[in-house]
Write a structure and sequence with these properties.
Layout (H helix, E strand, L loop, with lengths): L7 E5 L5 E5 L2 H4 L3 H11 L16 H11 L33 H10 L6 H18 L10 H10 L5 H5 L38 H22 L1
Antiparallel strand pairs: 1-2
Helix pairs in contact: 3-6
EC number: 2.7.7.102
Protein name: DNA primase AEP
GO molecular function, one term: DNA-directed RNA polymerase activity
C-alpha cells in the first residue's frame, strides 16, 4: 500500500515461506537498486546468527509494524502448550530475549521471569512494566523503551529475502511448481481465508502421481468394459 502496489498474487512457497508476485507493470520495470530500496523500506526486523535486530531510532517504524501484529498476538507466540511459547521455562538458562534493550530494563525483568509460571504471565509483566515506564517518563535519559513492541515484531513481522526481491536474474519458482525438498505444490493463497490455510494439506507430487495413476487405471477399465 505504501508503495502504490495494486496487483499482488500471494503464493505458498511449498516449505516455510510465502512469495508475493507483484504484477504492476511499473514495478516489473524497476531496477535492482529500486527493488533493493523497496525491500529495505519494508524490512523492520533482520535476524542473524545471534538473533540481532536492526536498531530502530524512533518509534515511528515500530508503530507502523506493531499495529498489524497486535491482532495476532498473543495467540501463538506466548500461549502455553503451543510451539513458539515465547520465553518458556526451557529458555531460562539462556538469553532468549535479545530485543529487551538496555540492561536497565532487561536485568530486572529477567530476574522476575522465573517466578512466573508461563509465557503469558511473563509477557504481561514485560508489557505492563514498559507501559508504566513510558507513561511516567522514567528513563528519559535513555529514551523510552519499546521492547514490548519489538518482541511482537520479532515474532509476527515477516523477514524478507532481499536477494530474491532485487535480483532480476534470480531463480524463481513459478506458482504450481513443486518444492524440491518437501514435494509440496506452491499453491496461491486466499488472504480472506488465511487462518484456514494448512501447509501440510496442500497437494504433493506423490499425491498427484497417485491420483493420475488411479485415474489412468479407471480409464483403462472403462475401455475394457466398452470393448
Amino acid at each position: 500500500e505504501d508503495l502504490g502496489v495494486r496487483h499482488r498474487l500471494w503464493v505458498y512457497s511449498g516449505r516455510r515461506g510465502v512469495h508475493c508476485w507483484v504484477c504492476d507493470d511499473a514495478v516489473r520495470k524497476w531496477s535492482p537498486a529500486l527493488r533493493a530500496a523497496a525491500v529495505e523500506y519494508l524490512s523492520l526486523v533482520k535476524v542473524g546468527a545471534q538473533r540481532a535486530r536492526n536498531p530502530l531510532p524512533t518509534p515511528d517504524p515500530l508503530k507502523a509494524g506493531h499495529e498489524p501484529a497486535v491482532p495476532r498476538w498473543p495467540r501463538r507466540p506466548v500461549a502455553p502448550g503451543l510451539d513458539q511459547e515465547w520465553h518458556s521455562q526451557q529458555d531460562q538458562g539462556r538469553d532468549s530475549s535479545p530485543v529487551l534493550g538496555t540492561a536497565q530494563y532487561r536485568e530486572p525483568l529477567q530476574a522476575e521471569f522465573p517466578r512466573k509460571k508461563d509465557s503469558v504471565q511473563r509477557w504481561e509483566l514485560l508489557r505492563g512494566r514498559l507501559e508504566r515506564t513510558r507513561a511516567s517518563g522514567r528513563g528519559a535519559a535513555l529514551g523510552p523503551c519499546y521492547a514490548d513492541w519489538e518482541v511482537m515484531l520479532q515474532f509476527c513481522f515477516p523477514r524478507l529475502d532481499i536477494n530474491v526481491s532485487k535480483g532480476l536474474g534470480h531463480l524463481l519458482k513459478s506458482p504450481f511448481s513443486v518444492h524440491p525438498k518437501t514435494g509440496r505444490v506452491s499453491v496461491p493463497l486466499d488472504l480472506q481465508k488465511l487462518d484456514q490455510f494448512d501447509p501440510f494439506a496442500v497437494p504433493t507430487i506423490t499425491s498427484l502421481c497417485h491420483e493420475l495413476d488411479t485415474a489412468g487405471s479407471d480409464g483403462e477399465q472403462e475401455d475394457v468394459g466398452e470393448t
